[in-house]
Amino acid sequence: MFELIKKYDLKRRYKGFTLVELLVVSGMIIILTTFVLASYRMGEREFSLNRAVHQVSQDIRVAQEKTMSGMECQECGGGVPPGYGIYFRDTSPNNTSYILYADENGDEIYTAGEEIETIELEKGVVIIDIKMDSIDSNQISINFRPPDPVIKIKRIQSDNGTETKITFALETDYSKTRTITINKAGLIDID
């Protein structure tokens, strides 16, 4: 009987995990957690790039709707301007905003002082390229004129274009991009 109790005590002592086993499992959990968090952060950044691009396309539609509805411009003194538009400026590395404007003088391009609102992109998103009809441009104005609305896409001091492409990227990774294409018929396409 004494031997039976001794065997039972020996078996009982060896149940459980060794220190080495606990360290290996803890190390594996830490490595997996690191990979999951890194993937989550990158996915979060790409999601903010998508949100920024959709916000820009929505703001272009806002300018178009203001034009079609003949909305009064409180920032312009309460009158109805000849049109509304969106203005994108140079593509310096820190270009993180664009302007919603009322075309008060009717010249179909953005002129300083016509701003309704300067809109900031999502944090970590920048504009890296602006093209009109496949030609690089550092400024582009997309203007809507009532009643249809007629759409004018112009580089400052140039003729009208048929389409513009604006490329956005993550500030930390220029290989992650999204492009908005706007044509003179008002079609907005996001790639």
Helix content: 25-40%
Shape: elongated
Structural class: alpha+beta
Mean pLDDT reading: 84
How much of the polypeptide forms β-strand, as a percent range? 25-35%
- N-to-C SSE series? HHEEEEEEEEEEE
Largest sheet: 6 strands, antiparallel
Our Rg estimate from Cα atoms comes to: 29 Å
Number of strands: 11
Name some characteristics of this structure.
alpha+beta, minor pseudopilin epsh fold
Describe the structure.
The protein has one domain: minor pseudopilin epsh domain (minor pseudopilin epsh fold). It has helices spanning 2-13, 19-69, and strands at residues 84-88, 97-102, 115-120, 125-132, 135-136, 140-145, 150-154, 160-161, 163-170, 173-183, 188-190. It has a six-stranded antiparallel beta sheet, covered by helices on one side. It is elongated and about 105 Å long. It has 191 residues and is of the alpha+beta class. The longest helix is centred in the first third of the chain and has 51 residues, at 19-69.
